[in-house]
Amino acid sequence: MPSGTGRAGVWAGRAAWTFAAVLPLVFLGVFFAWPVVVMVGRGFVVDGSLDLSGFAQVFSRPRTWRVVGLTLAQAAAATVICVLAGVPGAYTLYRRPAFRGRGALRAFVTVPFVLPTVVVGVAFRTLLVPDGPLGFLGLDHTFTAIVAALVFFNYSVVVRSVGGMWERLDPRAEQAARSLGASPLRAWWTVTLPALTPAIASAASLVFLFSATAFGTVLVLGGLQFGTIETEIWVQTTQFLDLRAAAVLSVTQLVVVAGALAVAGRARAARERALTLTEPVRAGA
Predict the structure, then answer these.
(1) pLDDT at res. 4
(2) In which element (H, E) is residue 126 found?
(3) By CB count within 10 A, which of 25, 77, 215, 222 is most buried?
(4) C-alpha distance from residue 78 to each of 108, 212, 255 (Å)
(5) d(CA 136, CA 128)
């Protein structure tokens, strides 16, 4: 029979584990679930009954379709550029033999991703304003400036995600293709790229998600002229006081986010199933 002190210790341990499990749930309920429920209630509950006519009203406006189109266009353009630039970067930093300063360069590539969005937006504007160092390009308050900032932020997502897998990818399959007469490019295209496709798809999904939900950067560099769903929710709430439209757009954005997360999750699962992983390739291997 455990002593009184032993029982007290057991109960204290159970209480601690219960508190550790309940606290995150309470936090999510108060700061996530409750605001979402209130927002949806204000947008879709009229006189105590569910009313979804707000969707028809909001999506009948040309402004809404322009905002949705800009959101998808900016996110898609940033995603394509990040992938095209990030895959070579992943090869240089993770697949090639080690070189002096590679660790510092890996860390440096990650820095933009952790910078405050408003700071980056202001920095880009400082460069692109007419009297700035790059003012001659005429990119201030343009679609191109926004995409460039989004690429600046999310480039490291592709480099680290793809590079981490590429570094551990078994090189013997590509070596076998080369020994059978395939050129380096053909071996990469037919052997390595298919193996990396799940990692690339996962990284691309995350970049699309981050770009589609960008707020500070878009607001600073594009203003209301190049608004996205994220900035439009803010405008409808703070300037037009149209909570119903904000609720409709919020639900729309939740659908986009859920879709991107689902694609990223499936790609990650496919990557884990399909790739043959080994220890990181050493220099000269």
Answers:
(1) 55
(2) helix 117-128
(3) 222
(4) 20, 10, 20
(5) 8
DSSP one-letter code for 280? P
| Chain CA centroid to CA 276, Å | 26
8 Å CB contact between 268 and 206: no
Amino acid at 260: A
Residue 268 scores a pLDDT above 80 = no
Strands (E), 122-174: none
pLDDT for position 283: 42
CA distance 255 to 210: 14
Structurally, at CATH architecture level, domain 53-274 sits in: Orthogonal Bundle (1.10)
CA-based nearest residue to 79, from 196, 217, 208, 209: 208
pLDDT at residue 29, as a whole number: 77
Q: How far apart are CA 14 and CA 9, in angstroms?
A: 9
State mean pLDDT over 172-199.
81
Contacts of 72 (CB under 8 A, 6+ apart): 212
Question: Which has the higher per-residue pLDDT, 51 or 201?
Answer: 201
Is the CB of residue 178 less than 8 Å from the CB of residue 144?
no
Query: Using only C-alpha atoms, what is the Rg of the chain?
Result: 24
Q: What does the alpha-carbon distance between residue 43 and residue 52 come to, in Å, rounded to a whole number?
A: 9
**Using CA atoms, how far apart are residues 239 and 236, in angstroms rounded to an integer?**
6
What pLDDT digit, counting tens, does each position of 40-83 carry?
Answer: 676 677 666 666 777 778 888 888 888 888 888 999 999 999 99
